[in-house]
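FAQ: What does the model actually see?

It sees only this:
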Amino acid sequence: MTKSKISLILILLLIVGAVLGALKATGVLHWGEESKSGFQKKGVLAVICEVEVSRPVNGLGQPFEVESMTMPAEFNLDEKTGWYPGEFTISENRKGSLTIQGPILEISRPALFKKYGFAVLGDHATLDRTNGSFKQWVDLEGGKRLDLITGSCRRTTNAPF
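And it is asked to produce this:
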């Protein structure tokens, strides 16, 4: 190969590298990030969950009543809202706020009512899109947390989260 051909190839490689670097820097090109960005980012994510509900019967010191059930949940990624029909629920007509932290979707809503001798300060639920794990809990006065629902969800369309 002549010196001029080698120079031309090096210049072309530098130009291609510069263009790819510019595309990556501006966010147009994403390589090596598919696992982070492979989740649905827009629209409504509807799921069906198989869960166990742990329900206090006569106060927090008593054994909880445990029931298995199937329930839906919905996460509106555009409006940043969500709902589910759990215990002390965030219902479809009183949706909670949705926050997204990587694969975790969290629905929350402030509350203020008394139950079992404690003030309930907030209601929360999370969906981990890496494994479909669903959890719901309430925040109680005094910095306490009462876990109520655990289970596993899947999309109603059988597509990945």
